Amino acid sequence: MRLVGAQLAQLRRNAGLTQERLAERVNAEYDTIASIEQGRRPLKRELAVQLDEVLNTGGVLTIAVDNMPEMDKYPIWAAEFVDREAEAVAISWFENQVLPGLLQTEDYARAVFRSRVPVLSEEEIEQNVAARVERHEILRRKQPPTASFVISEAVLMDRLGGEKVWRETVKHLIECSQLPGVSLQVMPFGRETHAGLNGPFIVLETPDHELIAYMETQRGSQLVSDADEVSILAQKYAMLRTQALTPEESRSLLLRLLGEA
């Protein structure tokens, strides 16, 4: 993403244009051009085509976008996790604020990104939604990972995106719970003990059978490879599974939420 931004900046300077003038020529916001050049915003293909025409590049930017490495589709801080997630043989994921990305519907994901503060532009929202939906194939690949999810019941009570999106999401969770290798458990209200009070986390098993962990915060994230630290999180997750409803009980809860039980 940074490389494409640097290429755009050089091509613009070669054409003798300011960022403001280039933005006018392609009917874009000045901030959009500035953010792309700084590597903070991805260049979308449609805009790349326009820029190639205005700057007379011979299609250089379009080719760059079409051949952008997969990790550049995501924020730099999440790129390594996305790479590890895609190749993981086992995924253990605890969430207490929002549904795991691999289980989100497109409309639910859109509602999540529209809840961001500061507010994202529509272009940024759609870019993020597309990247998240693309990851869904992980659970449906020919040899899918063993995937276990423990989700707080509170997450199921929120109506992100509205009632219609909520019902579609609950139906989607039921469908996902029946995928090969997928286990979905709900951590119910009213627990007297809870192993996940410090927040959400993910433990991945790599193809080399090494364990790594991933955690997000308000303003960043952390990929953990230290064996002792990962072991603690793996122990927490094992305890969470014993505290949560069983997969069968969780599915019954989802059906009751829809009024179908």
Automatic annotation (TrEMBL):
SMART domains found in the cross-reference section: HTH_XRE
HTH cro/C1-type domain residues: 8-61
One function term, GO molecular function aspect: DNA binding
Cross-referenced SUPFAM superfamilies: lambda repressor-like DNA-binding domains
Pfam families per UniProt: DUF5753, HTH_31
Matches recorded under Gene3D superfamilies: lambda repressor-like DNA-binding domains
Protein name (record): Helix-turn-helix transcriptional regulator
The organism's taxonomic lineage, starting at the top: Bacteria, Bacillati, Actinomycetota, Actinomycetes, Kitasatosporales
